[in-house]
């Protein structure tokens, strides 16, 4: 996804998105299993959502 921030910016926004979505889900009482696949899915979804939001704001 190109958010107009370059490769490093996209990676950093993606990591931040994964952390934010994990935090939101934990706050709501929804825990991704400690296995790598659920964490990968939640991380990818969080990254996509934050990059999408970044693109809408900028």
Automatic annotation (TrEMBL):
Its main location: membrane. One of its GO terms (cellular component) is plasma membrane. It is found in: Cell membrane. It is a multi-pass membrane protein. Keywords: Cell membrane, Membrane, Transmembrane, Transmembrane helix. The keyword Membrane applies. InterPro entries: Transgly_assoc (IPR007341). Coiled coil: none annotated. The chain crosses the membrane at residues 7-29, 35-54. Belongs to the UPF0410 family. This is Transglycosylase associated protein. It comes from Roseisalinus antarcticus.
């Amino acid at each position: 996804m190109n958010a107009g921030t370059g490769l490093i910016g996209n990676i950093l926004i993606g990591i931040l998105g994964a952390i934010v979505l994990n935090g939101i889900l934990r706050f709501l009482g929804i825990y991704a299993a400690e296995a790598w696949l659920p964490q990968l899915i939640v991380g990818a979804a969080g990254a996509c959502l934050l990059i999408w939001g970044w693109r809408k704001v900028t």
